[in-house]
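cron nightly-structures :: item 1 of 1
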Amino acid sequence: MEWLCHSINFNLMKIIVFLLLLVNQSNTIYSQSDTVKSLIKRFNFNSFIYGINLKFVEPLKFKHQYDELINSKYLLSGSFEIGINKDLSKKFRLNTSIGAGLLPFNFNYVFQPEENSLFNNSSNKYNYNELDLNNSEYYYFNSYLIGSINIERKIYEKKETDFYASLGFNYYYFPFDYSYELLDEYAINDNQSYTTFKAYNIDSLNNQHILGLKISIFGNKVISKRSSLKYGLSYSYSPFSQINGEYSFYNFDFINNGTFKQSINSINIIFALEILKNKK
């Protein structure tokens, strides 16, 4: 499990650096508050938005050369965003936001090695009737910044709640050059281990900038004179992948390898607080 400790430490370091970058950017914006206030006054927006998204990220997409031994699962992640709304008419409004989030992915396999093979042999000290790569152990993620612009249309009005449908664009920026190599090994004797699986990304095929679409349906429930609660569902989609890589199985009687892609597609649960701007 030494590789796992290194991976966790590396990811924690990335998160710390990532948060420091956000704090530094916030300080820069604050120090230029006069400019920001001037832009806000010129734009004449109507409300602030502070939101979080619970995201169910799509599994890795595999292209198998042989049998489909490897797979991936939906993973829960999240993002936060801050933004503004501007009314365009009684039915339409414009929403823009910026934020940050995490994009996770994982590998899974479970199968039985053939009898008398390298890993299922009575002459070994450690014998395996089943080989498995589980979800929690091989969990990786990358962090990103996001900018979003959406057109929202009011589709239904109810007492204290308005319902909207929206269509928009997302821009994702991945500030870290993410590289990894995953190795899974099994020991058959005290001093003898063999690799069963290897996966790695191809750095030259990583996408640092990605454009995507987002469709949403949500409600806005009034909770006070100046605030409302936004809740709903959205789907984020992009035809572009963030990470591209290759995988192979080793030390078996069969040959099995292929490629994989990590998409940014996700089903999202939306929660946000909308606060009306003070009128002067």
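cron nightly-structures :: done
Confidence is low (pLDDT under 50) at residues 1-9.
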